[in-house]
User: Which sequence fits this backbone?
């Protein structure tokens, strides 16, 4: 199926441009769809779609408290294709958060973040953070109840950080409460600063992929590696994925409408008030755990852990091999299920049976809702890791991978609980 | 590590520029005025119009005014100390419930049920010519309720 570049003619200007992004020839194995799932490319395309739809939306949007909501309503009802453009922007943004996360775990589990790729992992993490920032800043702009209270909740979470929390929250909000200053800050970040930062980060990201030699692949004998031309082999694959994605987004945007609740009312919190969906895991954690643990200690520790991931002392890395080894694959699947179930059961018990805040009230909330649940969570997992280490001879690679899996699986579990199982008053509906 | 004069000066300049840049950004983004503003006090009305052992919600001022049995006034912020939602007054207990994450407070604003970790903030009250004046610009954080927070007519 692979074709050669036709003849010896000079490349066209479009081909020249493509060869700035891709090398002329790549390993044939990199073409396999399940190697990358095209996630990085999909993200890049989503960024372009978001830029264009965003630029169009800017014609209608007024970033003031008085007019923001009305301008969205007018966009939806009076502008030709206004609703469609907004839906497209909304869905692409949602998809970008999901695809970025999938891209992150794809590169991680296919062992593509080590050695010369370590620097790019750091850029990737920063970009993941920027995806969240751009989504979060865009969340406020419609100025409806959903937007207002979600942003209120998140900026209040920042305030839990000791000493610097309050000034940072005020800096983000431009004041003590979410108001017109916040809207202006977020508007400027969302439509100006964040996209510019993205262009810089994306350029670095692409360049570092090239520098590292493209997609990470398992080592094989150099003579066996078959190299094929990017044009047309990779190019056509990319065009196909892009066409499918755009078609899917268009169909979806026609039928699914981006939500718009009633206009923001700072005097009336809806019941329940939830953070944006990707932050719900953090909000769930804050329900059960003392803010010092849930808003300071854990995010800091997890953040450092993720940035340090490529730099642990590994001894038998298999770059490009999914899950590093057969044992790694087994442990990843096992721990993902185990931590998901464990988190769910513990959350359920904390909700209905384990009332540490009442039982140990005399010892202070720091102990009762902080240390106790924290230890209940960590001790079983330490024992779990110990089991794999002693019984199955798991090495650093597998242990670190399992810790990463536990963290991500637990977060997803908490996010889903908060998203799907919490109703009025944030009470569990089961 | 070699560390010579040129390197030192270079890093010093970068550090100075970074600090200056940080303050420029902070000043530009943060719109909280640092200039001493003329305090605008919320006038809740005459002292005698408030019955003891009752709670009066002031929606525009964003506080609950409570007059206790002994005649002391306490103006508590409606903002939940957990994540900033607006609490509702609980008519049964005389306390407050947060609709967002089910924190509960008693009539003094103290926490009855987590996730909130500290009592509702209160606003300083002054009484002039029999009128209750509440300083809604400066919420006071507290660890627990005590009598000194009350204002008497």
Assistant:
């Amino acid at each position: 199926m692979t074709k050669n570049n036709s003849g010896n003619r000079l490349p066209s200007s479009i081909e020249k441009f493509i060869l700035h992004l891709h090398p002329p020839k790549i390993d044939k194995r990199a073409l396999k769809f399940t190697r990358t799932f095209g996630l990085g490319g999909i993200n890049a395309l989503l960024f372009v779609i978001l830029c264009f739809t965003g630029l169009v939306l800017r014609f209608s949007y007024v970033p003031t408290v008085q007019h923001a909501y009305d301008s969205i309503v007018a966009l939806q009802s009076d502008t030709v294709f206004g609703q469609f453009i907004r839906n497209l922007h909304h869905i692409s943004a949602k998809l970008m958060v999901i695809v970025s996360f999938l891209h992150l775990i794809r590169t991680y589990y296919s062992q593509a973040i080590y050695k010369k790729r370590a620097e790019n992992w750091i850029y990737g993490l920063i970009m993941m953070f920027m995806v969240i920032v751009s989504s979060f800043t865009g969340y406020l702009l419609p100025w409806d109840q959903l937007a207002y209270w979600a942003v209120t909740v998140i900026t209040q979470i920042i305030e839990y950080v000791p000493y610097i929390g309050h000034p940072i929250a005020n800096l983000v909000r431009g004041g003590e409460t979410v108001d017109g200053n916040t809207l202006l800050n977020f508007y400027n970040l969302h439509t100006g600063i964040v996209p510019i930062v993205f262009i810089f980060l994306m350029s670095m990201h692409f360049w570092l992929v090239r520098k590292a030699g493209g997609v990470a692949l398992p080592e094989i004998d150099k003579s066996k590696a078959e190299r094929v031309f990017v044009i047309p082999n990779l190019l056509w694959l990319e065009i196909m994925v892009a066409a499918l994605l755009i078609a899917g987004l268009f169909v979806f945007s026609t039928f699914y409408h981006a939500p718009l609740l009633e206009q923001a009312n700072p005097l009336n919190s809806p019941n329940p008030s939830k953070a944006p969906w990707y932050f719900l895991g953090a909000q769930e954690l804050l329900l059960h755990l003392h803010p010092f643990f849930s808003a300071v200690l854990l995010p800091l520790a997890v953040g450092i852990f993720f940035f340090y991931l490529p730099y642990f002392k590994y001894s038998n890395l298999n770059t490009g091999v999914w899950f590093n080894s057969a044992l790694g694959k087994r442990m990843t699947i096992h721990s993902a299920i185990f931590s998901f179930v464990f988190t769910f059961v513990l959350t359920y018990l904390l909700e209905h049976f384990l009332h540490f805040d009442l039982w140990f009230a005399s010892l202070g909330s720091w102990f009762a809702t902080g240390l106790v649940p924290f230890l209940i969570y960590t001790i079983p997992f330490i024992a779990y890791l110990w089991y794999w280490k002693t019984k199955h001879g798991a090495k650093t690679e597998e242990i670190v991978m399992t810790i990463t899996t536990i963290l991500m699986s637990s977060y997803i579990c908490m996010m889903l609980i908060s998203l799907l199982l919490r109703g009025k008053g944030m009470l569990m509906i089961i | 590590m070699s560390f010579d004069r040129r390197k030192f000066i270079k890093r010093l300049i970068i550090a100075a520029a970074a600090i200056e840049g940080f303050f420029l950004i902070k000043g530009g983004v943060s719109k909280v005025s640092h200039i001493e503003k003329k305090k605008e006090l919320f006038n809740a009305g005459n002292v005698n119009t408030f019955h003891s052992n009752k709670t009066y919600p002031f929606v525009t001022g964003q506080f609950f005014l409570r007059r206790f049995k002994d005649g002391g006034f306490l103006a508590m912020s409606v903002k939940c100390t957990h994540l900033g939602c607006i609490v509702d007054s609980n008519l049964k207990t005389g306390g407050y419930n947060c609709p967002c994450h089910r924190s509960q407070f008693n009539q003094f604003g103290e926490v009855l049920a987590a996730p909130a970790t500290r009592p509702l903030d209160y606003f300083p009250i002054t009484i002039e010519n029999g009128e209750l004046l509440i300083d809604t610009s400066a919420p006071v954080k507290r660890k627990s309720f005590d009598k000194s927070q009350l204002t008497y007519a």
User: Anything to note?
Assistant: Residues 18-261 of chain A form a domain with the Cytochrome Bc1 Complex; Chain C fold (CATH 1.20.810.10).
